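Quick one: Bax inhibitor-1/YccA family protein from Candidatus Bandiella euplotis, structure tokens please.
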Amino acid sequence: MLDYTNYAGTTTQRSGYDEGLRTYMISVFQNMGVALAITAIISMLVASSPSLMQVLFGTPLQWVVVLAPLGMVFFMSAKIMTMSVQSARVSLWVFSGLMGVSLSSIFYVYTQESIAKVFFITASLFGAMAIYGHSTKKDLSGMGSFLIMGLMGLVIASLANLFFQSSALGNVLSYVGVVIFTLLTAYDVQKLKVIYYNVGVNSDDVAQRISVYGALNLYMDFINLFLFLLRIFGTRRD
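--- reply ---
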């Protein structure tokens, strides 16, 4: 498994313009952008077929739909550094397709207009934090432990709320989730720069594979931020 924490406390950087870093970061965001596009297309196609939705979410197959993306994340985390660059990219595309199937259900819960609105809100917020994480001179590594602890608490509280079914707690968790994944976006972008300066400069192949895994991390930041914002600002269907 690729261990980002090995580099979390390292702030080695180079001054001035770095063409290698620029190419590396463009690759990260290109991979992420393609993954998001695949997810959007697959989710809309699946949601447009009521019969397919019934099969996927009205039968025990729903557990496959829910758990398959999680399994793919564990697989990529364990194998990313031994895959070829192309295999890593294909794995990311497969994962994003599985996420598209899983997220198709939001079109039956929220109106398309509100989904589009929240998507653009998410893109704007994510973009602003990514720019901050890339350009700031402040070391954000100190936020890492705080954010991981907050994320673990968010997951535990969300699981607990499946039993309590508290709308008030659900609302609080949505706002907490927005804060956590907003900060994680800046943190992860800066961390990708730090990793590049430690391993990417000396190995183009490693840099490309890390760019795919970095895209996976930023993709998940974006998707989670989108889902929490959707809970806050989304308009539910009658």
